[in-house]
Design brief:
6 helices, 170 residues, single chain, mainly alpha, 63% helix
């Protein structure tokens, strides 16, 4: 009977093999590598948040350069060039606002939920837009620094204020 001969051959098979032992020694249980995986994820998240912060800071540096140029041109009464500089400032401002919003979304996605908006708005404060038309500027003098302008007072808070004071985190 041929199946009996085949069964005896299989029964006496030796499974020890140097190659198999080498492979088995390299295979690592994933639970042992959990800390490494967590560290890699934290590093990737931190790097993404850092890049987003740099994106905001780059736009804010560009805003500052255009604002200084705008104020210099107004003092020289070069109104057309000042208008162009104000336009570039406002474009950089829009990029900074968009990048700040993207940072808020990224931070929210990775779990920064409590105080996320207030922290980001405080850290990356973006000033008001510059007037492009000179009938908006009084006596063709540079507008006051937005640091000295009193902030607009809101009559009502927003949903984030409600969650921070009444909602699930209190």
């Amino acid at each position: 009977r041929t199946w009996e001969r085949s069964a005896k051959l299989v029964k006496n098979t030796d499974t020890s093999n140097k190659y198999l032992e080498h492979i088995r020694s390299e295979v690592v249980d994933p639970s042992l590598q959990l800390k490494t995986i967590e560290d890699e994820l934290c590093g990737a998240i931190g790097k993404a948040l850092g890049k987003q912060g740099e994106k905001i800071l780059h736009a804010m540096r560009e805003m500052n350069e255009h604002k200084l140029r705008y104020q210099q041109l107004l003092s020289e009464e070069s109104f057309q060039a000042a208008s162009d500089s104000a336009h570039r400032y406002n474009e950089a401002r829009q990029r900074a606002i968009k990048a700040r919003w993207e940072l808020l979304v990224h931070r929210q996605a990775v779990g920064f939920t409590v105080g996320n908006h207030s922290y980001v708005y405080k850290t990356f404060h973006i000033h008001e837009a510059l007037p492009v038309k000179f009938d908006e500027v009084n006596d063709t003098t540079p507008p006051d620094s937005s640091d000295s302008v009193a902030p607009k007072k809101e009559k009502f808070g927003d949903q984030l204020d409600w969650w921070a004071t009444v909602g699930r985190w209190r």
